[in-house]
């Protein structure tokens, strides 16, 4: 890839053939905030149906969120109704996913309209006071600002008339201390500046601690490298128990954390050389098969094509 790495679609973010038919005669807006509002109007978080007065069908709780690719997300939207992509949909006609799906679709549409963008894995501090909730967001490049964090999931006031989240910031410009990238979380936990048990999944209380942060550091590296995994995917050092991780692997993870944390301060929109170098390490590289710890279907092995692994 050339200097506009994050303007190039990955196999995961490529919108596929349904985008044009979903748009009809209305072009995609180029403004990031307008694209964020568009995403919030067509995606529903699977844990938030009751907030919209909608009972999410059981089969959609898993089937939609297991879609790895933006092209499949758009295909499902096309199957759910004929409302143009640029118009908010009723909950029953939306894609039912997770935070990663909001981030993935926004990244796809930003790239499609000429704005470099990428997914980031980390923790939102704005869901529960005192807790760092496992979360995915989008970063997009703005001249004069650099990388800006956007959380399309928070843009509920666009479609509901009032916000569901107690936030005091612009969801399309999330402060770095409100969304903590996984590398920052890892370094804080390793250096004793943060309690690992305050990092986890609020809807699944048993998923928390340093093992989760370790997995998220590797997932964030993969996303920066062009493989945007599902939140429950695992491979290599991600799959080890804490006591099984060697000193050499801890040192490697410290390096990953430093590189991925610094990526948000990069002076340009190119993929950092450190990301390329680290993903060439067999201990971190995304393999042909990953372990998927699905929420509703148990643990299974999923094969990825070479193209999908980037």
UniProtKB/TrEMBL annotation:
Domain of life: Bacteria
Matching Gene3D superfamilies: 3.10.620.30
Residue ranges of domain Transglutaminase-like in the record: 91-154
Name of this protein: Transglutaminase domain-containing protein
Originating organism: Streptomyces flavofungini
Origin organism lineage: Bacteria, Bacillati, Actinomycetota, Actinomycetes, Kitasatosporales
């Amino acid at each position: 890839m050339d200097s506009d790495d994050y303007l190039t679609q990955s196999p995961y973010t490529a919108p596929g053939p349904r985008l044009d038919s979903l748009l009809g005669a209305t072009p995609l807006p180029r403004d990031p905030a307008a694209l964020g509002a568009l995403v919030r109007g067509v995606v529903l978080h699977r844990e938030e149906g009751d907030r919209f007065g909608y009972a999410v069908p059981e089969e959609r709780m898993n089937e939609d969120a297991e879609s790895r690719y933006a092209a499949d997300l758009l295909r499902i939207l096309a199957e759910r109704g004929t409302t143009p992509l640029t118009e908010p949909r009723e909950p029953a006609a939306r894609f039912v996913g997770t935070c990663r799906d909001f981030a993935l679709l926004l990244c796809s549409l930003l790239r499609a309209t000429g704005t470099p963008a990428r997914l980031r894995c980390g923790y939102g501090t704005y869901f529960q006071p005192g807790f760092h909730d496992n979360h995915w967001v989008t970063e997009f490049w703005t001249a004069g600002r650099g990388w800006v964090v956007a959380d399309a999931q928070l843009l509920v006031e666009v479609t509901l008339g009032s916000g569901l989240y107690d936030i005091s910031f612009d969801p399309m410009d999330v402060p770095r201390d409100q969304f903590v990238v996984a590398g920052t979380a890892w370094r804080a936990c390793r250096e004793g500046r943060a309690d690992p048990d305050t990092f986890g999944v609020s809807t699944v209380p048993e998923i928390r601690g340093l093992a989760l942060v370790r997995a998220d550091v590797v997932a964030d590296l993969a996303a920066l490298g062009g493989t945007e995994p599902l939140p429950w995917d695992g491979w290599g050092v991600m799959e080890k128990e804490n006591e099984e991780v060697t000193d050499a692997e801890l040192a490697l993870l410290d390096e990953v954390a430093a590189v991925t944390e610094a990526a948000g301060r990069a002076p340009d929109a190119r993929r950092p050389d450190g990301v390329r170098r680290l993903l060439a390490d067999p201990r971190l590289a995304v393999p042909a098969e990953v372990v998927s710890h699905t929420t509703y279907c148990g643990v299974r092995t999923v094969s990825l094509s070479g193209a999908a692994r980037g």
